[in-house]
Write a structure and sequence with these properties.
homodimer; about 550 residues; alpha/beta; nine-stranded mixed β-sheet; eight-stranded mixed β-sheet; 17 helices; about 30% helix; about 25% strand; globular
Chain lengths: ~550, ~550
């Protein structure tokens, strides 16, 4: 009886169920649009089974890692289901990494197989560097392989190994690892963040609720799928039976074409990406309501206003690789729609509160005590719950450090506002300490972004004999706009405390960003150090 | 380290978290409207803590049962959180039960405390019948107590025992029992269906997604909260920070007043209840979109059309007490909006497919093999997964029977359509077998309901010498409408197979229904038996 009861009333949580269900409920509904290819949910489930079977036939065993190096194409979406369906662990690698970084991840994860898009084949390292990888599968034209690369197999040939015999859409234990996501870590070796089936399931449901997805969702893949498994959206959009629209490269003109052609209702991405889209020449009023879920940096009031003007609703979420992508959401309050746009945007620019499926997000001092909820006292943002990673793969020390005291330490600095909303001020390492006072580079950046001529900005601390450090800004101006250093510094001083205004502004044609939209401040710091050490002529 | 990791990345699923979060995120938002009383989420969390503390101070211990006999008032909503917050188990009793039935449930559940609304005090059994109940708490005026009832305490006095010292909004084990729901069982003693924290959490999220709840939800309590814990809606609406509008008695005029006054966006209930609302003299076009989630019987095409005309969207769900209320949902397909109303309504009247958080619903023969998906072959509807009950409280045999073969046996008969949608034909015991052919009383009822003069109907089998059984219909006509037996039988014959048409129709001024809207066919059968055994005069 107990055995029957367990069978009847317990099922390990797994996103695999989402595809099983949508294939049953919406077999003929469009699941994936990828270039000229359309897949229904029946097709998606069939291709997933085929790939899972091909993985098994290729010697991939339970718990083995399978690496993918692909842009946002159907093959990578399929992998989010096929790899766990085969009982294996997906390692989706950042496509902008250098060959030696790809090699490191293959080695560290111990991946058995590497699936590479033909476009990225040159990024593939020589065979001898790939650790335990026994085979390289090429999506697209295998002839694109460069000399010296490992012998490889075409994706079609690989798939042909897979019979279509069904596999159970389930996992034995919901705490099993579903994927490893290597942090882009601006310093140090990347760490492999392990996600569980349970965490992925719950995080996907949280995003469905907070971004208000339904079976009518048409989701455009502007966010890289390799980034925190696309914030679990491959699983969430599939859960509701929505349509995925793939996109190889996020060019604003292509984005607008997709929005118009397919009636896109949802997209996710960093504010920098959304700014480029909102300011594209093709930008126009939306015919269908669009939800833009954004994270990675606070959306500026300007961006929020621009998106709202086009007819989009902004959902601001915040998180890290270690928490399955988004952990918090800046929940709208009933009185916000009545606020003046500027004030509303300021409220919405905060990182907010734990999602419905998450626990309370805290801001703590070094003794793990909550800082006062005064919007001023800075502390570290810590999190816990089912959407916190299982740990760093094969790195017990880093895991223990990250979980010290039973909370995940984000390394992000923030304040707690009186309304319980957290605002991120800076990465711990990015804060500028000037004359003993903390200056949040994010705050200075927001002040600069509110100037109409400023398109993009990054602030770092530079050494100062008198103050220890002083903020310096790197600015990209809007096309056709002009502003000089003095004007911008005055603008900042008119908005925030004078001592926080940068002493210097350097204009750049582009800011160095990671593939996920984060400014690489370490590059700006390196550049600055190089400039300072250069002997002054004369 | 392992201990830290467990703390950081695992939290037992519990609906308690939903109230904790909404009180933090939406402290000033309206949580409950109950008559003249308004509670914000801060108030709701505070009152919940107060009641939980009062329970503990009254000697309620971990796992003890606490019974409530209340209509849809704030106190019962609070109990859905306060009782589990105290570590106890909620037993919400059907307010229409007779005193001896209430006594049976108190005895069987071993409840320590009984909380009764003053209106229902007469239903309270004498003290000596209440088993282990040590104290009766009266909500409202304790002077309403009748002679002979147990000595009782006023709710206010009871609450005053509770300090406001916080309790942790969590449970140690997500498989702990959160509530017992006694089946209204048309025959035999009621059984206590045990729900877990995990099941309640997941079912609540499923309903949030399928009924599209958000923090803008204004939910009117037309469904009894004592019925399957109101389909887990106390937890779901609280999860998103929506507003609960309580309602002591579901009178159509009061419902329409609430809809207009509070801008109701969602309500749940049986089709009979929704029909009464849709046909009330107060019915009018809705100003705000309204989602009507209905279950308990298939909504008739007529009802669906009527609700759509008013501006409401119908979500049809199906389930039983044993599966936390709704288990399946009749998901809309992309092409349904284009179908002729009649055909669309027929599709929507089916019970559908497992919810997103459920497993696949099956229709099986006696060997547990799936019947052909032909829409014709009848079998038993079986279910499994996280939203299937833990079991029947203190009834291992019934639990073992219900879970035979690792699936929950609903006792409902249905067919599987080629599109994978299940259609309920009848309760196993309600089917009419005429000349060896099965006749679904639901099908005959639907045919009768499509006649404009028919307001309500119930079909049962009556003994027939020639055929074994023949269907007989009991009909309630619409106010002011008329139709005779012949006309209605002809109408049925024009729509379904002739042998399925009833041989006799009896007109009644009202149909006997359970408090949850189900027709009590056993009463009609008893009435029929009595009529048959009466000697015919002359």
């Amino acid at each position: 009886m107990v055995a029957d009861a367990q069978l009847a009333n317990f099922q390990p949580l797994s996103p695999l169920r989402f595809l099983e269900r949508s294939a049953e409920v919406f077999p003929d509904k469009l699941a994936v649009i990828c270039g000229e290819r359309n897949l229904t949910y029946r097709d998606l489930a069939r291709e997933t089974t085929r790939v899972a079977r091909a993985l098994l036939a290729s010697g991939v065993g339970r718990g083995d890692r399978v690496a993918y190096l692909c842009p946002n194409v159907a093959e990578l979406l399929i992998a989010h289901f096929a790899v766990p369906l085969a009982g294996a662990v997906l390692v989706a690698i950042n496509v902008r990494l250098a060959p030696q970084e790809v090699a490191f991840i293959c080695q560290h994860s111990g991946a058995r197989l590497l699936v590479v898009d033909e476009e990225l084949l040159p990024a593939g390292a020589p065979a001898e560097d790939l650790g335990g990888v026994r085979e390289v599968i090429v999506v697209g034209d295998p002839a694109a392989a460069r000399d010296g690369a490992m012998p490889h197999t075409g994706y079609r040939e690989f798939c042909a190994r897979g019979r279509l015999e069904p596999l159970p859409w389930e996992v034995a234990d919901e705490f099993e690892t579903i994927s490893l996501n290597y942090t882009s870590g601006t310093t140090g070796a990347p760490k492999g963040v392990a996600y569980t089936h349970r965490g992925a399931y719950l995080n996907a449901l949280g995003e469905v609720i907070h971004s208000e997805h339904s079976s009518a969702s048409v989701y455009l893949w502007t966010l890289p799928m390799f980034h925190c498994n696309g914030w679990c959206t491959p699983w969430g959009v599939t859960a509701v039976g929505g349509t995925h629209v793939c996109l190889r490269a996020v060019r604003p003109d292509a984005v607008w074409r997709m929005i118009d052609e397919h009636g896109v209702t949802h997209m996710n991405g960093a504010p920098a990406v959304m700014t480029a889209i909102a300011r594209a020449p093709e930008a126009h009023s939306l015919e269908r309501p669009l939800v833009v879920t954004t994270a990675g940096a606070a959306p500026s009031p300007t961006l929020i206003a621009e998106l709202e003007r086009l007819g989009a609703r902004v959902v601001h979420v915040y998180g890290l690789t270690e928490v399955y992508g988004p952990y918090s959401v800046c929940e709208w309050q009933p009185d916000w729609p009545q606020l003046p746009p500027e004030e509303r945007a300021r409220k919405l620019a905060r990182q907010g509160v734990g999602m419905l499926i998450a626990e309370r997000m805290r801001v703590v001092d070094e003794q793990m005590q909550d800082v006062p909820a005064d919007g001023v006292t800075m502390g570290e943002i810590v999190m816990r719950g089912n959407d916190v990673m299982k740990g760093y793969f094969r790195d017990e020390d880093a895991t223990a450090n990250a979980f010290a005291g039973g909370w995940f330490h984000s390394g992000d600095l923030g304040v707690m506002h009186p309304d319980g909303y957290v605002e991120l001020l800076d990465r711990a390492k990015d804060i500028v300490i000037s004359g003993g006072e903390n200056i949040s580079t994010v705050e200075v950046e927001q002040a600069l972004l509110s100037h109409p001529a400023v398109a993009d900005v990054a602030v770092i601390g530079v050494p100062s004999e008198r103050w220890g450090e002083r903020p310096k800004a790197f600015v990209l101006l809007c096309e056709g706009a002009s502003a000089d250093e003095r004007e911008l510094i005055d603008h900042v001083r008119s908005r925030i405390a004078h001592f926080k205004a940068p002493d210097a502004i350097e204009f750049l044609p582009e800011l160095p960003r990671t593939s996920t939209g984060k400014v690489q401040k370490h590059e700006l710091r390196a550049r600055e150090r190089a400039a300072q050490s250069r002997p002054v002529a004369g």
